[in-house]
Amino acid sequence: MGLSISMGSAALSFADTWAVLTGNGTPLQQTLILELRLPRTLSAFATGGLLAVAGALMQVLLRNPLADPYILGLSGGAAVGALLAMLAGLAGALVSGSAFAGALLATMLVFGLAHGTGSWTPSRLLLTGVVVAAGWGAIITLILAMSPARQLPGMLYWLMGDLSHAGNPAPALALLVLVCALVLPLGRSLNVLARGPLQAAALGVTVRPLEWLIYVLASVLTAAAVSMAGSIGFVGLVVPHMLRLVLGNDQRLILPACALAGGTLLVLADTLARVVIAPEQLPVGVITALLGVPTFLYLLYRSR
């Protein structure tokens, strides 16, 4: 985070950064760090942590290492909400609010369709999410095709992940801390659930309420992250899997490690997005893919 605050189109030394954080520094340096870089860095950390924890929870719920926060169509619903708000001429918090509402609508839609007249299973939930995500993708394409040319750049940047308009990071950070505090006491139950519902029930775990709790928490985390920074891929898939290769499969270690590693990954990715072609900026989602894919493949190769 210190590196992220110091680097950018106008580079600052660590001494200058420390001076600003301790109440000194020039007015220009204070504006640059306290009003521009620090909120963006904290937003990147919160978003990465939210996505990584949501990914870890989804992989436990679906018992599938390839599950991630976007596989159930949540990002598609959020993207439709945000793009409709942009098309209506809204901006700022209204776009984020529309994205959050779209993600929650997608959550209820997938859960309702997967549940049907009986109970849902991981495979049924997964298939429903994939189909609903395809439907959201078609609606996104339709919106982009009908949008005026002047609005397309902002829409495309949002779809690729953009932290330049992230806003106040405090609610997302508070949500990340709250959810970690809530799920850590459930670590043993999550470890058992990852081995299958029958074994978990035999060992005294109340399976259905725990599955509902995981689904709701993962959905809220994803909705909060997407509404803040747009669609950023690979964090929720790569980070939990990388940590599992290194730390094992104990959720009491994996979940807090995901919060830290996911936040760190996105902070580094956003720093690169700001400095690679400075003063121009890249979408942070491009950087997460370029960093995440080779790192993931290398760790997977080493673990064979």
UniProtKB/TrEMBL annotation:
Residues spanning the membrane: 43-62, 69-88, 94-113, 125-146, 166-186, 224-246, 282-301
Family, as annotated: Belongs to the binding-protein-dependent transport system permease family. FecCD subfamily.
The UniProt record lists the keyword Cell cycle: no
One cellular-component annotation, GO: plasma membrane
Protein name: Iron ABC transporter permease
Pfam families in UniProt: FecCD
InterPro entries: ABC_BtuC-like, ABC_transptr_permease_BtuC
Keywords for the protein's UniProt record, in alphabetical order: Cell membrane, Membrane, Transmembrane, Transmembrane helix, Transport
Any one GO molecular-function label of the UniProt entry: transmembrane transporter activity
Places the protein is found: Cell membrane
Topology within the bilayer: Multi-pass membrane protein
Lineage: Bacteria, Pseudomonadati, Pseudomonadota, Gammaproteobacteria, Pseudomonadales
Record carries keyword Membrane: yes
